[in-house]
Design a protein that fits this description.
The chain is of the alpha/beta class. Helices cover 43% and strands 11% of the residues. The protein has helices spanning 22-25, 43-49, 58-61, 63-72, 85-93, 111-121, 137-149, 173-179, 190-197, 211-214, 217-223, 259-262, 276-293, 303-318, 337-354, 361-372, 378-391, 398-408, and strands at residues 95-96, 102-103, 126-131, 155-157, 169-171, 186-188, 200-204, 225-228, 233-236, 242-248, 265-269. It has a 5-stranded parallel sheet. The chain has a two-stranded antiparallel ribbon with strand order 1-2. A hairpin with a 5-residue loop joins β1 (95-96) and β2 (102-103). The longest helix is centred in the C-terminal third of the chain and has 18 residues, at 276-293. It is globular. The N and C termini lie far apart (69 Å). 41% of the residues are buried.
């Protein structure tokens, strides 16, 4: 027997008062004009808040672009997809429509990687985005779900404490004790809801989840069903359902995926940016987006400092200077693109609130030190050696060297 799971926002049977529902307690869904209790908001208020949210979901932040693409998209769409695979790829990679409308790129990287990822979602294979920290796996996952299903919030955040209920289902224990196992007492997980509605579910940091909990996905991905033994029923996935998972290369050996589970995924590896210019472009775009939401200065005023931060991170990450002439030691941290974005954003905040609004070496120096020196003993030696042998001798970097040296001393 199969069972249909209805997920109306005002259905009290889908809310477990003893647990936290990610879609109803997210502070970005609070309607400031009509709500006094942030725990009673619904998904509808998220759309109403829109640009007022500190970090709006992709489907709201880029609603105009998605709408324009949908209006121009005359290509075949898989069942329950909001856009065709071609339009989803265009949304992620950016481009210009025939009428001159510009679609901003959400991901800067090889086109074929995006095309393979989108095509995977159009099949019965789940998608695993794999890569080192900071390669935009979560970012790509969110935008794929937004473009395919129009909803990126069916999310399971993987941690060492993620329970099986987060992937399968839970229970409203008040009703369970009063009535016993019943449909009304069941609380569907984001994955179960995606199966019932033919949408895209997301599982972040899959390898951080305990192995026995990971394996609860095997039946879902292979048989496209979710058994509910307590009710003698099952939920069958409808057409349009698929799942995107992300995992870090650095997490291998933590809770590595079983071979049985890995076979259920088509794995796409997201690489680090190929060049300094590509990484500067990525950092500039993301910092500009974040900065606008925080009323920070525009990125072009500090483009030189962004280039310096990216160059430092790349050289320490690669173990060699950009000209290939000098080998350098690498610190213990990842020094990812995401960390570069964080350093520059923090620097812009310093420039805005304690400076003249222009990003300068002194604004990013402390952030770089914090990103590089994770191990106070070993990493500090690596950083000081790099400062003296590379930064100090580089033409036009005297002010940057002095700023970094000041916070390092």
């Amino acid at each position: 027997m199969s069972v249909s799971i209805e997920t109306k926002p005002d259905d009290p049977t889908t809310t477990d008062p003893t647990t936290t529902d990610l879609t109803t307690t997210d502070p970005t869904t609070t309607d400031p004009t009509n709500s006094t209790d942030p725990t009673t908001t619904t998904r509808a208020t998220d759309a109403e808040v829109g640009s007022e949210a500190l970090r709006p979901h992709a489907e709201h932040a880029f609603a105009d672009e998605l709408a324009v693409l949908a209006a121009h998209d005359d290509r075949p769409r898989p069942a329950r997809w909001k856009l065709s695979p071609w339009a989803v790829s265009l949304y992620l990679l950016g481009g210009t429509l025939p009428d001159g409308t510009v679609i901003t790129p959400k991901y800067v990287g090889p086109r074929r990687i995006v095309e393979v990822a989108v095509t995977t979602l159009a099949t019965d294979r789940a998608l695993l985005l794999l890569g080192v920290p900071g390669t935009a796996k979560t970012w790509v996952s969110e935008h794929l779900a937004a473009a395919v299903s129009g909803d990126s919030t069916l999310l399971v955040q993987g941690t060492a404490g993620t329970p099986e209920e987060a992937i399968r289902y839970g229970w409203n224990y008040a009703q369970l004790l009063a009535q016993g196992p019943s449909r009304d007492a069941l609380v569907p997980s984001p994955v179960m809801r995606a199966m019932a509605e033919g949408m895209t579910a997301r599982v972040e940091e899959l390898t951080r989840i305990p192995a026995d909990v990971q394996d609860s996905l095997i039946t879902i991905l292979s048989e496209k069903t979710l058994p509910i033994p307590e009710l003698g029923q099952e939920v069958q996935a409808v057409r349009g359902f698929n799942l995107i998972a992300t995992a870090n290369d650095r997490d291998r050996g933590v809770n590595d995926l079983s071979s049985a589970l890995r076979r259920r995924f088509n794995t796409v590896v997201l690489p680090l940016p190929e060049s300094v210019e590509a990484e500067v472009d990525i950092v500039s775009r993301r910092v500009d987006q974040i900065g606008r939401s925080l009323d920070l200065p525009a990125v072009p005023d500090g483009i030189d400092e962004i280039r310096r931060v990216v160059t430092v991170f790349r050289e320490l990450r690669d173990g060699v200077t950009s000209d290939g002439r000098t080998k350098v030691k690498s610190p213990s941290g990842t020094l990812s693109t995401a960390e570069a974005i964080s350093v520059v954003t923090s620097g812009l905040a310093l420039a805005a609130h304690f400076g003249d609004g222009v990003l300068r070496p002194g604004d990013v120096a402390a952030g770089i030190l914090g990103a590089v020196v994770r191990d106070p003993a070993a990493d500090r030696v690596v950083w000081q050696e790099y400062l003296e042998t590379v930064v100090r001798e580089r033409d036009g970097w005297t002010d940057f060297y002095r700023a970094c040296r000041e916070v390092t001393a």
